[in-house]
Each structure stands twice: as structure tokens, then as C-alpha cells.
Amino acid sequence: MKTLKVIGIILLVLLVLLLIVGFFLPKDIRVQQSVSIETKANIIYKQVNILNNWQNWTPFTSLDESMSYTNEGPKMGVGAIQKWTAESGNGAMEIVETLPYTQIHFLLDFEGEEERTPMYWTFNEDGDFTMVTWVMEVADLSYPLERYQGLFMKSFMKKVFMDGLTDLKIVCETLPALPSIKLEKMDEFYGLAIYDSAYYDKIADKMGASFGEVMAYLNKQKIQPTGAPFTVYQSWDIEKPFLMNLGLPVSELKKGKGRIQPITFKAGDVAVGCHYGSYDKTGDTHMAIMEYMEEHGLEANGAPWESYVTDPGSESDTSKWLTKIYWPVK
Questions:
Q1: 119 with 109: CB under 8 angstroms?
Q2: pLDDT averaged per 10 residues in sequence order, the chain, 330 residues
Q3: Which of 104, 192, 297, 300 could form a disulfide with 121 if both were Cys (CB 3.0 to 4.6 A apart)?
Q4: Of 298, 308, 307, which is closest to residue 326 (Cα–Cα)?
Q5: Phi first, then psi: what are they for 194, rounded to 5°?
Q6: Closest CA to 293 of 182, 186, 188
Q7: How far is CA 131 from the centre of its chain?
């Protein structure tokens, strides 16, 4: 009987101690892990901002093999949602704010929880490296049980985050560099061009003939071109002829003759991408620009065009051919 009484007193003391300690435990916890990745921020940003890419590196699937995912809303950016079901519990995460290539803000919904949990990603580019930080904040843990759970959860989640960041690093450091894209303001300028059409595999032949024809007209009229040849894509469908303006820029609006006619490029904002390589790969840079526009909330505001800065006649190495690609935006 005396022994039971002693045990009871000890248990009571332990309980009191647990309650006292629990009172001083933090009610809010912050889980944060960082890793340096040897690549540009835009490559890593796309792995996080495009929710379908999470399957390439997410640490959560390995924690529960029953976990399955579905995506809703846009494929990237604000409003994109990923939901999961698993034996360990269901939930969802939604992108609620983005700052392209710098920060992404999520809100997490866990089954049975009333409040949504904030989660942040930041990308700090410095030269050839980017410091990536993954943060989750849990607030208002109830006293005392959840506060003790918070201690274990913080330690556990720090390891999970680091596992995910390590896999993300492996994925991103094997991906090719993305084209350099930036937003510029363009002044109005003019050109003389031929309006024509061609199927995709015949465009190069059409370019050579058309540029030569326009150049011959400029020489005859003693007009000096002010830049590199260009192609404006008025419509494109791989199964139909592309509709194009093919010509050269000039200093002011000039009269044309026959099928060589003036064209005006209106002033405004343009998304500009630099493509290095053969012309048959420029589609990759067009796609990169369109993703850039989507990430930055921009809409197309006219037909895109290409400017062929490098003369293939004077440079045989196709890897050095520079094509500047312009998309008018609003």
C-alpha cells in the first residue's frame, strides 16, 4: 500500500512537471531548412511553382506509399491546388501568392484542422548558385499536448524538408539552363517585308528567298537596313501553313512595291528571349517566353517576331547563332 502511494506521488509530480514545462513550451513553431543549388533561380522556381513537378522530388510520398495526388486550377501560380489522399490523412495545398523567381506562398489544409497552415519558399540567386529556403509555420498549438507534439513535429519535419531539398537539388542541377528572358519597352519602328506562308519544314527556304528579295529591293532604292532580318508570325499551326511577314527593318516608314510592303511595329512592352542555336529549336524559346508571361501575369498583345542577329553566312557554328525573340505583351 505504501509502495502504491509512493508511485502515485511520483506520477502526480511528473504530471505537474509536464504541465508546468508544457506551459513554457512555444505555442507557435517554425520549420525551416535551406540548401544551395548550383543553378539559376528560374529553374528551381518552376519545379516548385508548377505543382505537377513536385512528383520529381517530393519527400512526402516516401513517408506514406498510399499517398496519391490530384491537381486542380491552373498548372502553376496563384490558384493552383494540389490535393492528396493517404492512409495517414488527406489534405491540400494552394498557391496564394507568387513573386516570380523570388518567393512562393502556399496555404496548407490538413484534414480535421480548421486553420490553414502557411508555407513559404524563397529563392535567393547569387551568381551561379541559388539559396533555396523552405519554411512552414504552425500557430496556436493547444496546451499542453499539442505543444509537446510540436517539439517532435519540428524535429521530424526538418529532416523531411531537408530530404526534399536534397532531391530537388539533384533534379535541378541536371536540368539544362533556360533562355534569358526579360521585359523591355520597345519604341515604334518600321520595316519592309513580304507577306507569305509556308509549312513548318519549308520556312527556312522561304526565309532565304524572301530576305534576299527584300534586300535586293532596298539596294535598288538605296535604302539602308537598320538591323537584322526578321520574321513576324501572324499565325502558326504545325498542321497548316504558317502566315508570316519576312523582311528587314528601316529607319522610317517607306513605300513598298508589289509584294514588298511596309510594316509597323508599335511601341510597347515586349518579353524578349535570346536563343542561341539552330533555327529549328527556336520553338523552345517561344515556349519559355510564354511560360514567363504566364508566371508574370502578362498577356500577348500582338504577333511575336524573331530577329536573326547572327549571319549564318559568316558564322558556321550554329551554337553561336543568336536569334532574339519578341512577344508584345500587356
A1: no
A2: 53 44 55 96 96 94 86 95 90 96 95 85 96 85 52 77 96 93 96 96 92 96 96 94 97 93 97 94 94 94 97 92 97
A3: 104
A4: 307
A5: -105, 130
A6: 182
A7: 16
